[in-house]
């Protein structure tokens, strides 16, 4: 319909852009990374990614959109990393369809080389809900990406359909626990115990955790007490536009 053709034009004109949300190291309170989040303003309003990402998928625009956003993320990352020797990472969300698309890994390898990135500075976030549609292809892509040194993080961990055995078979280097696991930890002891169990599971299989959706100090205190190393959420920092990122970086030099 109308929104679809507007999105097509926006992708062609590179008007879908990125916002960046801080990921914080809990032991020090310092910035450790930034998650890139796609933003589209259409007729004066922000269209949520939950709307335009599926629309792009149905319209056959995901390949072009992903290429464009990865290019922007790598350009920004290279600029922000110049002259610094810290370990800033930029996380980019990659739809399952793109992870397994022909040539995807080659495209990523080319980006890393062209922008002169430390490969581990780029982290791709893949979602549990989609990768298991074609598990073998997804695993093969993840193996190749990790061989390049690029990071792969499993997003929305815990709410998808995967078995733990399948997860264990993927050479991931971190998981992001879905914010639903954090929602009630400060009011419901059972939820707090559940979070504890999920964190212990991740630790047992050697997967560092990024906790998502930290909105209240009590959630932050619990995560620290349970030994979670990284977190993200409105309390720690909202998504900001590109121009607001450099001041955030001063905190980590
Ligand atoms: O930012 P938030 O409302 O900004 O994002 C909502 C959802 O959209 C999240 O699940 C997020 O992972 C997804 N999303 C945001 N940006 C992108 C993107 O560039 N590519 C893909 N595939 N998903 C994205
Ligand atoms: O699925 P993904 O993790 O990529 O989702 C990122 C989404 O989560 C974005 O829409 C982002 O704006 C949103 N988000 C980030 N921090 C918080 C938070 O503390 N609370 C809520 N409700 N959403 C958050
Ligand atoms: Mn994400
Ligand atoms: Na998530």
From TrEMBL:
Record-annotated EAL domain positions: 1-253
Top-rank taxon: Bacteria
Protein name: Diguanylate cyclase (GGDEF) domain-containing protein
Organism: Klenkia taihuensis
Lineage: Bacteria, Bacillati, Actinomycetota, Actinomycetes, Geodermatophilales
């Amino acid at each position: 319909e109308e929104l679809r053709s507007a999105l097509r034009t926006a992708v062609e004109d590179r008007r879908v852009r990125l916002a960046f949300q801080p990921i914080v190291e809990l032991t020090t309170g310092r910035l450790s990374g930034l998650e890139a989040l796609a933003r589209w303003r259409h007729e004066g309003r922000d269209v949520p990614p939950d709307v335009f990402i599926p629309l792009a998928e149905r319209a056959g625009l995901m390949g072009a959109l992903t290429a464009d956003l990865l290019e922007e993320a790598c350009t920004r990352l290279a600029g922000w990393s110049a002259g610094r020797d810290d370990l800033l990472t930029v996380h980019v969300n990659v739809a399952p369809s793109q992870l397994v698309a022909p040539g995807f890994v080659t495209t990523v390898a080319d980006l890393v080389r062209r922008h002169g990135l430390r490969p581990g500075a780029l982290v791709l976030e893949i979602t549990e809900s989609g990768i298991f549609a074609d598990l073998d292809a997804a695993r093969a892509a993840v193996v190749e990406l990790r061989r390049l040194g690029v990071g792969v993080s499993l997003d929305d961990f815990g709410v998808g359909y995967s078995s733990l055995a399948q997860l264990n078979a993927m050479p991931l280097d971190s998981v992001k626990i879905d914010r639903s696991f954090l929602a009630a930890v400060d009011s419901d002891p059972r939820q707090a115990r559940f979070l504890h169990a999920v964190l212990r599971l991740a630790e047992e299989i050697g997967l560092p955790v990024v906790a998502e959706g930290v909105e209240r100090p009590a959630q932050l205190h619990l995560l620290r007490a349970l030994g979670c190393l990284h977190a993200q959420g409105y309390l720690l920092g909202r998504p900001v536009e590109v121009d607001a990122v450099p001041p955030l970086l001063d905190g980590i030099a």
